[in-house]
Recover the amino acids of this structure.
């Protein structure tokens, strides 16, 4: 005979059953709630799209403001820059169609310069990169003051997307090398002059390599004058009558900003101006 359960154990209480009609009905969502939720979702997407649209626009405006704050100028007309009156025939005015005042963006004319090996190099060889083109000369004291910040900026920003090119309005490479020594290697042993009191290319190159064994973070090309003046032929063709001057050129070879006189290229405003063009892959 099987054991009978103790009679003092409590009897399990049955759970109340949900009415059959309610169980069959399931969860019901008010259509008004669906409409409100959909509206909120659409509004959220619209706000997100607006933010995504505004961010690059704001960045572009900031870049333009930075370039203007750096005293780059858009209207190539008579104006005062760093206390100097810039006449319409100065700087890139020579690039304007029919010699009339024009604005940037402006196509940069191609040119051919010489590298240290005497090889011809074109500006168009750098198409696809953002280029900061700097006109200078070894005899220019203001250029010497600008070179350290130019070198610092070039070292920080150099990449596959950006290059700094410098055109020296000098008649020979020895002068350009000595100019770089004076600008970037203060206190370095000067090159020895020959019996005629002139510095040979060999002597200048030896002093340059000793003082700057890693070279400089920008490319240097020679732009010798084609007359008795001291401004290089390429610089002269741009209408330049004094150095330093610089042009910021985009990937398509278009001048986006132009700067008369020296700049502090390591300053925050300069970095913002340059990066606004470098980071814009569409130009």
């Amino acid at each position: 005979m099987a054991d009978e359960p103790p009679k003092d154990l409590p009897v399990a209480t049955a759970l109340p059953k949900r009415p059959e009609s309610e169980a069959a009905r399931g969860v019901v969502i008010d259509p008004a709630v669906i409409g409100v939720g959909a509206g909120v979702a659409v509004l959220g997407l619209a706000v997100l799209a607006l933010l995504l649209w505004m961010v690059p626009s704001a960045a572009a405006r900031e870049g333009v403001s930075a370039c203007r704050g750096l005293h780059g100028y858009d209207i190539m007309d008579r104006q005062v820059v760093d206390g100097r009156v810039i006449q319409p025939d100065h700087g890139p005015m020579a690039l304007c169609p029919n010699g009339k005042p024009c604005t940037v963006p402006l196509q940069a004319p191609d040119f051919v310069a010489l590298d240290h090996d005497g090889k011809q190099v074109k500006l168009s060889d750098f198409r696809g990169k953002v280029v900061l083109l700097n006109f200078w000369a070894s005899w220019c004291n203001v250029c010497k003051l600008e070179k350290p910040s130019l070198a610092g900026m070039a070292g920080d920003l150099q990449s596959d997307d950006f290059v700094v090119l410098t055109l020296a309005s000098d008649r020979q490479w020895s002068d350009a090398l000595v100019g770089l020594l004076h600008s970037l290697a203060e206190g370095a042993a000067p090159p020895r002059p020959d019996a005629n009191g002139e510095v040979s290319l060999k002597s200048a190159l030896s002093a340059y390599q000793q003082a700057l064994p890693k070279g400089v973070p920008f490319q240097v090309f020679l732009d010798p004058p084609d007359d008795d003046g001291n401004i290089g032929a390429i610089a002269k063709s741009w209408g330049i009558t004094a150095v330093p001057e610089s042009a910021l050129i985009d990937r398509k070879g278009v001048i986006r900003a132009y700067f008369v006189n020296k700049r502090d290229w390591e300053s925050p405003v300069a970095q913002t101006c340059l990066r606004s063009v470098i980071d814009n892959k569409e130009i």
